[in-house]
Amino acid sequence: MKNYNRCKKHCKEHETLTYETPASETPVNETPASETCINELSIGTHLSVAKGYAALAKDAVQIGANTFQMFIRNPRGARAKELKPGEIETFLDSLQMHGFGPFIAHAPYTLNLCSSSRHLRELSARMMGEDLQRMELMPGNLYNLHPGSRLDQPLDSAIEQIAQGLNHVMFPDMKTTVLLETMSGKGSEVGKRFEELKEILDRVAQKDHIGVCMDACHMWDSGYDIVDRLDETLEQFDRLIGLNRLKAFHINDSMNVRESHKDRHTLIGEGHIGEDTIIRIINHPRLCHLPFILETPTDLAGHAQEIKKLRKQYVWGSVSDKISEQNGIIKTYLGTDF
Ligand SMILES: [Zn+2]
Ligand SMILES: [Zn+2]
Prior knowledge:
- The protein is an alpha/beta fold and 338 residues long.
- Helix content is 38%, strand content 12%.
- It has twelve helices and twelve strands.
- The protein is globular.
- It catalyses: Endonucleolytic cleavage to 5'-phosphooligonucleotide end-products.
- Belongs to the AP endonuclease 2 family.
- Its cofactor is Zn(2+).
């Protein structure tokens, strides 16, 4: 309980806390303070921007999210969506009005800073550079990147190329934090081990603007036993990289057994990771303040259900989440629109 109170007042102290409070110990009903990261679970899902930013914000609110992830250009192509005048301002106003925390822009899947083709490496850097410029219009958010696929290149050269690419497009005083995602090791993906991410991070010049996004499915598929050894996995990350560098978490279940290197996401509770582990992750004192993003294969109504279910299981935020529900945000969505 002592930890909880400290945590509540000084969320930045998560890094120095040890995990002593069992997840089942629900905090007593206290009035939520206005400036804590753990009163309310920060949760959302990957959403489409196809109908514009205003429609995306509306979808996010309606499914009970207070963060989200989106592509800011075609995920399988190079084209960025045209911005209408005032579109970003309206979007940001709407997010602020509904109490959203930082969101994630996900880099396109085609972006590969360690491609064996020089042309593709340069194209990737150009796309990412443009994306980061666009992100300057939306300050304080996150840009998540798959480090790359090295094909038949040696790992060392791939890591060097990724770092060079990042150093080319990142700049001092940038307003976005770039995140490297933990990968499953499918094909020749770089980033399946924390050591590989560390090697990249060590070479990046803008240290204040780079971090990591964990993906539960990817880590499991890569071999990390987050089901039975979550604390050990986090300690390992902390030793190598530092948990202060962890800025977001993709909470996906996995269709496959551990170390399968497959990267097939499934709904929470329907895979080999299981609901209990996802609940432990969102409640873990060293993780509970992070934005949690669902990349599970379902529609908006399905995501609303998943968000609602996980909010109920968030031990730190039972008070404010009940308030959200009373306000009818989630009920309205589930009851009328679908
Ligand atoms: Zn990803
Ligand atoms: Zn992911």
